[in-house]
Specification:
The chain is an alpha/beta fold and 407 residues long. The chain is 38% helix and 23% strand. It has 13 helices and 18 strands. The strands form three sheets. An eight-stranded mixed β-sheet has the order 1-2-9-7-6-3-4-5, with helices on both faces. Strands 10-17-16-15-11-12-13-18 form an eight-stranded mixed β-sheet, sandwiched between helices. Helix 7 links the parallel strand 11 and strand 12. The longest helix is centred in the first third of the chain and has 33 residues. It is globular, with a radius of gyration of 22 Å. The two termini are 35 Å apart.
């Protein structure tokens, strides 16, 4: 047998083993979800902070957020820019659609972007909009020769709403009834001149992806510059990925504590090293992750890092009784971020993402309160408990480890 043939057989065997492990854990996960009780978790009320001319509101419960988003849409006078990764065709999705259509009917310019791949299962009738609305379905697959361009594979994972250029929302919440009461996520609202940053992000992406039948959006720029609020955008088409750098710079500064909440946590070596270095110099590093997320393979890939993290002094808290979907961090009572990017390859070097960064003690204080409240709904994973996990779990983590660079 030649070396080439042997390598092919070994690769096929490895792929086959990975497929078997994925099938097995998916089957077990489906059974557990079927038996799972109704989600429940502690709530943190919306909180306001002031940064210069800006009013910042932080949301950690979907019903609170959606009520304010719909109120902003219904109060729009000139323009609405709405962008969502997932927009479910359920009761809440219909309410958003109707509110946007009504705004368009009264003369408001309405611009909408949603991701085609993420909404493949949404009924086609829901995706039929009034002619007065301007709508882009970001394509599931790049057309023609562009299919071969790796820069075209990023999904539009952003969630943005900007009304009249004065009110902006951004964060982890997609639009759907499930997320209103059964998922723990985080969003922020910006009232003031810095809403321009979110508007500008929408305008740039609209102009980048529009076809000839869509109007080109113009943005006159802004004379306002609030240095304590910054918006970072990952743009795969241009190979621009600043959110990863934002995290690395912030973690490297940590002296007292690092609190991070992430739905899917599959760090690259540099982020892993930064967290371990922060723990070594005495900072309390806490990660709040789902005990079980909605993507079981991502859970198992994440667990492959637990041994290294726990040995390095990082504390891991597993959120229970509900899905935690937030993408947030706060450090040393000074710095915070809320956005759409997970700590994984898809978000940090793959998808279109957007995160808002705050240098402000009042925002950080509220983010810390949310984090500590969430920890009351989580159990801390001890090094001993983790080392005593079953052999089959350790084996599965090893088999799936080669998939980390793809997710």
């Amino acid at each position: 047998m030649g070396i080439g043939t042997l390598l092919k057989r070994l690769l096929l065997a490895a792929f086959g083993l990975q497929a078997m492990v994925i099938a097995a854990i998916s089957l077990v996960d489906s059974f557990r979800k079927w038996r799972r009780a109704e989600p429940s978790f502690p709530r943190t009320d919306p909180r306001h902070a002031t940064i210069g001319e800006e009013r910042i509101t932080t949301y950690s419960y979907g019903e609170d957020l959606y009520a304010d988003m719909l109120a902003a849409i219904r109060g729009a006078e000139r323009e609405i820019c709405f962008e969502s990764f997932i927009w479910k065709g359920d009761a809440l999705g219909e309410e958003f659609k109707q509110a946007l259509a009504e705004a368009s009917d009264r003369g408001v310019e309405v611009f909408v972007i949603y991701d085609g791949f993420a909404n493949l299962v949404v009924p086609s009738r829901f995706k039929q909009f009034p002619r007065s609305m301007h709508v882009i379905e970001y394509p599931a697959f790049a057309p023609g020769w562009r299919f071969l361009d790796p820069r075209r594979y990023g999904r539009d994972h952003r969630k943005i709403l900007v009304v009249d250029g004065e009110v902006g929302f951004v964060g982890g919440y997609n639009v759907g009834s499930l997320y209103a009461t059964q998922w723990r996520d985080t969003h922020v609202r910006i009232d003031g001149p810095s809403a321009w940053d979110l508007h500008n992000a929408f305008v740039d992406f609209w102009n980048l992806t529009r076809s000839s039948r869509h109007p080109r959006l113009h943005d006159p720029g802004t004379t306002s510059w609030e240095p304590r609020i910054r918006v970072h955008r990952n743009v795969p088409r241009h190979l621009v990925f600043p959110i990863r750098g934002m995290y690395l710079e912030a973690i490297d500064r940590a002296q007292h504590h690092v609190y991070m909440t992430h739905a899917y946590f599959i760090p690259d070596q540099q982020i892993l090293d930064a967290l371990l270095a922060a723990a070594r110099r005495g900072a309390e590093v806490r990660l709040l992750l789902p005990a079980t997320s909605n993507h079981v393979v991502a859970d198992w890939l994440s667990r492959g890092f637990y041994s290294t993290l726990l040995r390095g002094g990082v504390r891991i808290f597993l959120y229970e009784n509900a899905m935690v979907h937030a993408k947030t961090a706060t450090i040393d009572g000074q710095w915070s971020t809320v956005g759409t990017a997970n700590v994984d390859r898809l978000s940090l070097t793959g998808n279109y993402e957007i995160n808002t960064e705050f240098y402000d003690p009042s925002v950080a204080k509220h983010m810390e309160e949310i984090f500590l409240t969430d920890c009351t709904n989580a159990r801390e994973l001890s090094p001993h408990e983790w080392e005593e996990r079953p052999f089959v779990a350790k084996f599965s983590e090893t088999v799936l480890a080669p998939l980390r660079p793809f997710l």
